[in-house]
Amino acid sequence: MCFTIAAQNNINSFALDVNWKFRQADGADWHEAIVPGCVHTDLMRNNRIKDPFIGANEKECQWVEQKDWIYESAPF
Q: How is the chain split into domains, by residue range?
């Protein structure tokens, strides 16, 4: 995935699928993220939740959808 900016005959391209991080909107701790993706896979990758498709883990992960999440990439 790439984003291109053209200004005054200069063309700059930026990869949109690298250098992402995320956090809970009311939290302060940032974690690595992979975009495209989803908050559940990012939380699992960062050992914040267990896989919701194994056993009864889904019940322990229901709080995730009740929270707001912020994703941010490195500045261009």
A: 18-73
